[in-house]
Amino acid sequence: MSKSSRRVDTFASHYIFLLIFFFHSGQLAGMDVVSPELNSLLPDEIMDTEAIEDISDSQAHGTNTQSKTTNETTVPMETDTSSNVSSAENTLVAPTSKDSSPSSSSAGNQITISVSSTTSSLPILKQSLATSTTSTKTTNSVSGTTVSTGGLKLSGPFTISAANHQIILNKVATAQASEASKSSATCHQVIKQEGQKLLVTAIGKSGSPIVLQLPNSKAPVGQTSADPKIQTPQFKVVTIGGRPELKPLVGCTTNQMTALQTQQLKAVQIAKKTPTSSAPIKFIITKTVNSKGASPQSQVVAGKFVPYLRYLLFYILCIIHLIFIYIYIYIGRVLTQTSSVLPTKTITLTEPIGTSLQSIPGKKIAISPLKTPSKVTVVSVASPTSSAPPKTVTLPVNLALGQQILAVQQSTSASPVKVVSSQATAQNIKPVQSVAVGGVSGSHFKTIIPLATQPNVQQIQVPGSRFHYVRLVTATTASSTVQPSGPSTNSVQTAKPMMVSTGAVRMSVPIVPAQSVKQVAPKPLTTAVQGVSTSQTQQRLIMPATPLPQIQPNFTNLPPGTVLAPAPGGGNVGYAVVPAQYVTQLQQSPFVTLANNSSFSASSGVQTQARLPVNGVSTTESTSRPRKPCNCTKSQCLKLYCDCFANGEFCNNCNCNNCFNNLEHETERLKAIKTCLDRNPEAFKPKIGKGKEGESDRRHSKGCNCKRSGCLKNYCECYEAKIMCSSICKCIGCKNFEESPERKTLMHLADAAEVRVQQQTAAKTKLSSQISDLLMRTTPVIPTGGGRLPYTFVTKEVLEATCECLLERAKCSEQTLQPQAEAERMILEEFGHCLMSIINSAGKAKVDCASINC
DNA sequence: GAGTTTGAAACT
DNA sequence: CAGTTTCAAACTC
C-alpha cells in the first residue's frame, strides 16, 4: 500500500476510532445511540429514502412483537473464540425466552450476526432499548431475545449459531422458526431468510465479517435461500474497515447478491484499523432498499436499527466530508503552488442522460474519497455524439499512487453510463478503479487528470506499463463544454503503436484513433494528440509527423522528455516530436500535447535547449550550454541549414526571419520534416556516433568534406565536434588527425585558453569571496542594530592602551611589593576594567551611530 | 557590424 | 553520383 493510502487509512482510522468509541460509550452508558432529536436532524440523503420509508412503515405497523420481548430476556453469551470458532460445524442455538424454537429457516425477521474469531473487534449493535452489557458466552447454539457479545447487543428473538469461524445470531420472528436453525446453522440457513435484510457486518480480527442481517419476513417460511428472485435489488453498504476491499460478508450473503445487485450497490467504505486488533477490521452495514418485499415484522426490526444506522451513516458521512475537505485543501494548496506555472483547466461535465448513477447532483462522482486525500484524479469523459453504446472501461490504476477519481461524465448517449466506482473501490484496494467512458467504444486510451500534481498534467494508462504522466495543453480559452472541435477533419487515424524507450523503461504507447482521443481529451482537439514523456530532460529530436515507417524506429532513440505533438492542420500528418521546453507554445496552441509534468515544470521557464546525447556522452554538458540562436533569413528555418531545425528544436529567441519553425507553422514544419526524412532518413539522427571497433568512440557519421580549412576550423564538423577526422572523411589537406602538429598546437592553444579562462574565473571568484570575507571580518554587522560588534573596537590602539594599563598595574604591584597572587589579581581586575571600557565605548559608538542614522 | 570564407545542405 | 547552388555559420577586418 502506498504512503498516501496508509495516510488515508490513518486519517480514516482516527475518525472511525472516535466513532466506535462513541458508540461504545453510548452503549455502556445505557443511552440511546441516537437521540430522537439527533435522529431527526440527520439529513435524509444520508440514508436511502426508500429504506427509511420502509422502516418507518414497519415501525408504524408495529406488528412485530419481538421488540417487546427483547427487553424481557437477556441471554448472556460469551464468545469462546478458541473453541467455537474452530468448530466449523457447531451450530449453537440458544433458547429464546419466549419463542421456543427459533429457526433460521423461517421467513420471519432474523438477525444474523457473524462474529469473527476474536471479540476484539466486536461491533456494538443496539437494536432496541436493551442496555444489558453482560458479556456473552457462546454455547453451541443460543437463542434469545437479547444478545450481548462483548460490546455487541442484540435484542429480540434470535438464534445464535457458530459455524465456520462465525457466530450467527439468527433473530427469530415467529415461533415457526425453529429446528431448522438448530439442525443447520450454517450460512446457508441464514441465507434462507428472504426479503429485505439489514446487514451490519464487521470483520473481526480474523477477517470474518460480523453480519447483522435483518431479513424481510415476506419471504415464505421454509423457502430456500438460493432463490435470487426475492433478493433485494439494492443495497446500501457502509463498510468500515482496515482493508479497503469489500470482502464477502458471509458466504451466504455473498451468494445472495447477484450481479445486478452488485451493480446497484452503493458502498461507502472507510478504512479502519482497530486499536485492539492487529488485523484490519471492517464494518459493513448493509441496508436493503427494496420496498417490494418488506414485511411488517422485519420492518419493525429494521426500524430499530434506524437510529443506529442513521447515526452511523451520519458520522460516516461526516467523515467523508472531512476527508473531502482535507482533499480539497490539499488540492487547493497544490494548485496554488502550481497555478503560477500552469493554468488551471476547467472541466465541465454533464450528467449522462438516463444514467443510473448515483443521484449526486454535482455531476461529479467521488469514488472512494476516503482512500487518498492527497490526490484526486478527475476523469473527464467528453463523449461525442456518436451513437455508440457507452462502454464501461476499467482503469487499472496504479494503486501506489493512491489517487482517486472524480469521474465526470459527459454523455449524450441515451444509453446509461455506469460508473463502477464505489463497487470496484470496495472490492479492490485500488483507489482508482474504473471510469465510465460514455460513448467511447473500442478505445484503450484512458486519461486521468491528477489534480494534485498539475492541473494540466494527465496520466495515460498504458497497458502493461505504469502511469505515465502526460499533460493536456489546452487552448487558452477553456471551453465550458467538452466538445471536440477543430478545423481538422482527419479524425480517423490508424492506430499505431509507438515504442518509447528511455533507459530501462520501455513504454508502448498505442496511438488511438483521433476520435477516441477526442473523447478523452477535454479540450478541443484538432487532431489526434499523443504525448509521451518519460523523463525530465528535454528533447531535441524532431520526429516526422507523417506515418513514415522509418520514423517509428526513431522513437526508440527518443531522448527523455520527448513530447509528441499533433499536426495542427491534419492532412496526412500524425505526430511530431516537439521540444518539451516549448510548453508555453503548446499551451497557447489549440493542440493537445502530452508531456511529462515534471518536464514541463522544469522546462517551462527555461529557454536553454538540450541536445541529444552524443554517442552516449552525457548531455549535461550540452544541456547546460544554451543553444545559439539561429540567424536564418531565407530557409524559413525549415531546412537543415538551420541548426534549430536540424536539432529538432523550435526556434526560440532566435534572430531568424520569416521563421516557420514553430507551432504556428506546424504544417509547413511537418512537411519540411517529411521532406528531409525522405531525402535522408537519418537526417535528424546525431551526426556524431560511435565509431568502429578499435577506432575512436566518437566520429562523424558521414565525415567532413573540408577543402580549405584543413579541418582545423569550426567549418569542419569534425573539428567542431572536437573529434578527429576519420577514414570516411573526404577532406582535403586534413590536419585534424592525431599526430598533426597543427592540430596539437591548436589544441594546446585552445586548452591553454580554456585553462586561462578557468583560472581567471576561479581567481575572480576567490578574490570576490576573499573581499567579501574581509569585509565581513572588518566590519561585522550587528544583525539587530546594524552597528559594529564590540570586538571590532579592539583596535591596535586599544590593545596597546590596554597592555599599557596592565603593565602599569603590574609595575604598581611590583613597586608596592605585593605578593604575586595579589599582583595577578590586580592585573586581572585592570584587564576587566579595560574590557568594560571597550564594551562601553562600543555601546556608545553604537548609540551615536544610530542617532546619526536617524 | 559588415564582409568574407567555408562547407553542409539542397538542388539539378 | 557528381556538379552546382543555396545557405548560414564561422571567420576576418
From TrEMBL:
It comes from Neogobius melanostomus. SMART domains: CXC. It is found in: Nucleus. Belongs to the lin-54 family. Residues 79-94 have a biased composition (Polar residues). InterPro entries: CRC, Lin-54_fam, Tesmin/TSO1-like_CXC. Residues 1-30 form the signal peptide. Pfam families: TCR (PF03638). This is Lin-54 DREAM MuvB core complex component. The keyword Signal applies. Residues 55-109 are annotated as: Disordered.
